[in-house]
Design brief:
- The protein is 54% helix and 15% strand.
- Helix 1 runs antiparallel to helix 2 and helix 8 packs parallel to helix 9.
- The strands form three sheets. It has a five-stranded mixed β-sheet with strand order 2-4-5-7-6.
- The relative contact order is 0.09.
- It is of the alpha/beta class.
- The N and C termini lie far apart (129 Å).
- Strand 11, helix 10 and strand 12 form a beta-alpha-beta unit.
- It is built from eleven helices and twelve strands.
Length: 441
């Protein structure tokens, strides 16, 4: 739309007006574009400031979190050290506490073999019950301490449930008889993989709990095979457990039923839950108030290939009478208690020594038939060291037993390497006799 020389004035004005409109429109669009860019710039600048502020807040939060983590790490270290100190104290105290308790039980067992009048028999029975209560509480505290430890190690190995049932039957028969209950163990050939010590503790607590809360009828212990696993079952005809109580009974110091009905501290099922959780054994229960309860523990079975060549408990019933046993024990009361049980009850010949040097002197050229050694001896000696030196002196693998108040997996591992079983204090005369007989070839 260019101006020409021959355009009239009116035509020139018209063209100039249109050119002005176009120019004004372009200027308006340019202003609008400039305003939009400015707004974008301002928004970007504000966002940048917001990001900087949020970054500073995040950095401060991260610094605070790091400080809290350091504080938590320090607190955790203190807690772990306190737990280790508690465990060390309990281990040290357990030996000093279980030593006189073990001696007292052996003395009491020897006393029960003598002629007693009715009053003396009653007093002996009450003393035995009191010792059993103390022993149960001490074992419960030690078990909980070990199961709460992060450093606990289990000794998984094949366990013959028939042998476990045999020992439980002997152990809990008096308790069942005193309440007029039937205690039955279904025959089984099942062999499972577990830690023998803690599996026995699980079974002990379940059987004991069943007997405590059963007033009539009885308790049946058996094995049911399902899906390639063996379920250890403990059934009772007791008071049962209501649905709201089935979770809390596995907590410490929880008891159900009537007040004052059953003795105990309410720690048994807590130990069962802890041990099963650590070992990976599932536990379940069914119960109906007034009609009884069944507890089930799922155990992995040993394959047939593994079963071949497994150790079978020695059922040799040959008499121990006349057999020579060397006892290495530094505690005077325990030495006397061993002498009463081994000599007076079992008719064995007991040589009693307080340490390794005395034991070597008593051995001479004629080795004993077997050795009983306490783990903790004087002068930083221990029973495994004593057995090792005695075997070397007589050039024979003399059968031996370690007696220990320390529930230390290292002791069991070392004993296993030397083919020396470990009995934990307080020692039951029946367990000691059974183990001694299993050593007779």
């Amino acid at each position: 739309m260019l101006l020409r020389a021959d355009d009239s004035d009116a035509r020139r004005v018209q063209k100039l007006s249109k050119i002005s409109e176009v120019l004004i429109s372009r200027v308006d669009r340019l202003e609008e574009s400039r305003g939009s860019a400015w707004s974008t710039f301002q928004a970007a600048a504000a966002l940048e400031q917001e990001i900087k502020a949020r970054t500073r807040d995040l950095e401060k939060a991260m610094a605070d979190l790091s400080e809290r983590n350091r504080e938590l790490a320090v607190a955790r270290a203190h807690a772990e050290e306190a737990n280790r100190s508690k465990t060390r104290f309990l281990r040290a105290a357990s030996h000093d506490l279980l030593q006189p308790l073990s001696a007292a039980k052996l003395f009491l067992s020897a006393l029960s073999d003598t002629q007693l009048d009715p009053l003396q028999q009653e007093l002996t029975g009450r003393l035995a019950g009191a010792f059993e209560s103390v022993e149960e509480l001490m074992h419960a505290v030690l078990d909980i301490s070990r199961l709460d430890s992060q450093r606990i190690e289990f000794q998984l190995k094949p366990v013959h449930l028939s042998e476990l049932f045999r020992r439980l039957a002997i152990e809990y028969a008096p308790m069942a008889e005193s309440k007029g209950l039937r205690l039955s163990f279904a025959p089984t050939s099942a062999i499972v993989e577990s830690d023998p010590t803690f599996l026995r503790r699980i079974a002990q607590n379940l059987v004991s709990n069943a007997l405590k809360y059963t007033d009539k009828g009885g308790v049946l212990v058996g094995v049911r095979r399902r899906g390639g696993r063996a379920w250890l079952e403990v059934l009772d005809t007791g008071i049962g457990i209501a649905a709201p109580d089935r979770a809390r009974i596995f907590d410490e110091f929880q008891r159900v039923g009537r007040e004052g009905g059953a003795p105990g501290m309410g720690l048994g099922l807590s130990i069962v839950r802890r041990a099963c959780a650590k070992l990976g054994h599932r536990i379940a229960l069914d119960s109906e108030p007034g009609r009884g309860t069944v507890f089930r523990v799922s155990l992995p079975t040993v394959t047939p290939e593994t079963e071949r060549g497994l150790y079978e408990p020695n059922q040799n019933s040959s008499s121990l009478r006349g057999r020579v046993v060397l006892v290495i024990e530094n505690d005077t009361a325990m030495r006397r208690a061993y002498q009463l049980i081994l000599v007076e009850r079992l008719g064995m010949v007991a040589r009693i020594a307080g340490g390794i040097a005395e034991a070597l002197a008593l051995t001479g050229e004629e080795p004993p038939d077997m050795i009983i050694a306490d783990y903790n001896l004087d002068n930083d000696e221990n029973g495994l060291q004593a057995i090792r030196e005695l075997r070397a002196a007589v050039h024979q693998m003399v059968p031996a037993i370690i007696i220990s108040a320390r529930r230390d997996p290292e002791i069991h591992r070392a004993g296993l390497e030397m083919d020396v079983p470990v009995l934990e204090k307080p020692v039951r005369p029946e367990d000691l006799q059974s183990m001694l007989r299993s050593m007779i070839t």
